[in-house]
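question for whoever is on the cluster today: can someone run the full assembly for these? two chains, 604 residues total. i dont have access anymore since they changed the login thing
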Amino acid sequence: MTIEVRLTTPDRLAEALDTGADAIGLGQEGCLTKLPSTDELRAAAEEIRAAGRTVVVVAPIAWPRTAGELHRRLLAVAADGPTTVTVNDLGTALTMAGAEDCTLVAGLGLTRSRPHSADQKNGTPPKAGVDTALLAVLADHGVTAVEIDTDTEITGDHAVRQLVDAVPVGYGRSCPTARQHRTGPPDCRALCDTPFHLTTNSRWQLNHGHREPLPATVTAPTLTVWGNAVYRTATAESTCDYRILDARWHAGESLAAAVDAHRNTILIGH
Amino acid sequence: MATEPVPAGQPCADRPVVEPSADHVVGLNAPVRSLKMLELQIAGGATEVYLGLRPEDGPVSFDSLPANRDGEQTHVSSPALLGEIVTAAHAAGLIVHFCADTPVVRAADEAAFRRHVERGVAAGVDTLVVGSLPACSWLAGGELPVVAGGALGVSTPDLAAHLHEKYGVRRVVVPHTLALDEIALFCGLPGLEIETPVQTGAGLDCTRCRLQDTPGVGLGCRAGYRRADDPTGDLGGFLDGAADCALCDVPSLIALGVTTLQVAGRESPNLRQNAKITQMYRRALRGHAAGTPITEVIKEIDRVELMWQMGWLPRLCDQQRCRFRDTPQLRAYV
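^ ran it for u. tokens below:
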């Protein structure tokens, strides 16, 4: 049983190490600007290794402009010692496939996709599920585990790591937080430490060409936006013995309490 | 490249001047779901069409759209109609791309997916558009060329090169959220055709979006939002970072060497308007080939096209919904 605390930056690293988590993750799926620099990553990774914990680096989804820099940072950290890299796009998975002493995990950026409905009258999508055929192809490139959220189904025998706090439902190439603050990378780096909590109040109607008020019978979901990532609250409990806690959802001392709570749940469950 | 002043009625920023040329012929790939739509797209100037087919049964679509989006059907309704469309398209000299670009093929659906592809092949389509890496591997080496569709999320040139080398992928449809300099990197890959969407955009990365078609949200990037704790805290289109229109930059795309421009809209509620978009891009391509600067092409469009004056200018130009301009949307690209 393993508990990982995931940090966007090393700012709360000491606090995370104090929780007794088995692994510390650094980074997020969405944005290279938010990812710590190479020096920051290497120093944090060294501290984590020295504390006897597993280092996880979460690679933001790579774009043509960012792929080179992203891969340099990942390879630099991996060259220092045992590192787990959570890859969120196929290009990064291919690049990191040959890295020595590096464990590769398919991240949420690779498991977001879902099929669309074939119902002629109702476009509501089927329940999300991991593409296990994709995992088989990725295994050929050294990817040994997969991260999912608690609302996503997975079939077959796979090493699964579960994010327990929220369900990512979208990532923006054009960052909504940066746009809201009328800026962009790299000047926006600190702005996404504060989330936006929002809900829909109108719906784009394709055949009318404008937004229309939601029908009274529809319950709009509440979304949380951290940087360029959009999340919904998870609706299901974790069922997995590798759990990932995102520190952003646990301010101050509640982080340690959340780690303890999950540890106890796992122990009781087993 | 030199720049020139922005003509009146075109509020977007200065644009690079690309010398008109007929050297590089660029295709125009348009959506189709019926014979009527095909007829309109041919009239609009399409040289290629792409389409999806209604699945035989089962709960999932085998392409990148639901069967029904906002009340509009997206699929060709039967294999027989697909055959008719393919025949008519070929008679008009068009290439037909068959969309089997579902981003996920669940294990339980694999056999049905393969049958679905066989129905497209039997109808005589020219290429297979795929949306997942497994589909790429399954269909590689088959009788038809494989296109890595936008749903596959080929976001880096290295991945595109890998798909070409390992699976023989002939063409890659690049994400609609790329800037011009990024598309240039793809165009530099040897042996690979590059197709770019030109009249669509979104604030979110569609390949990873789970908001689409969700009750109470619809298209998440186009929905209106308010602060969750304040009913009066209207945030407008908070997630809408769309950069739709690439008309001004058609010459730049030609100069980069893109193979084909893709017009969106298999789900379009207005077939004529959708074909009109194709026609606008045809005007831009034709103008460039004839040696007419894009500014002159747009002046002429502005003079004669009611759709331009009533729809395009206020909804795209005035809102700076430009695919490749220096706009707040692009300055916020991660």
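summary bc i know u wont read the tokens: The longest strand of chain A covers residues 196-205. The domain at 2-165+235-269 of chain A is CATH 3.20.20.70 (TIM Barrel).
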